[in-house]
Amino acid sequence: MILPIVAYGHPILRKVATDINKDYPQLDKLIEDMWETMYGSNGVGLAAPQINRDIRLFVIDSAQIFENMDDQDRAEETYPDDPGTKQVFINAQIIEEQGDDWAYNEGCLSIPKIREDIYRAEEVTIEFLDEHFVKHTKTYNGITARIILHEYDHIEGKLFIDHISPLKRKLIKRKLDDIAKGNIRVDYKMMFPK
Question: Name one GO biological process term (predicted).
Fold first, then answer.
């Protein structure tokens, strides 16, 4: 089932999410719905707070970026994380961020039609449980690391716009206010703050 995406301005997006255990009600169905919602919204990652759940759960699929990349993009740059990763992250905790910060133009399903260059670390080492509650500690890099860091921010109550300068945030304030008021059209279901 495709769930509505929580829009900027909703308080759940600023809340630090809580850990869950394997007895969380209908977790398999929730994860299935999150995949369906993410793909239905043309996203590459989705965190539980974005569907109005304050739990430490997110899903990512960087493989679709590589699948949709044209030959010219592939020829211009090498991607250390090619062919990408599809993964469920439960109760994730970042162990370490490594490498140089690099810029990439990010967007967010909860903040539609706004994109900004965001600097993030090249690599992230993260400890998490998968959908079977098997514990992993893995290091990711490239675009996959960026998506993980973006979604991890969501479970920490942060948004990608928190990484831009106050001046840039001031310049997009009207657009952010329009999103919070529901004065925006997107081709996926959204839940606006009341």
Answer: translation
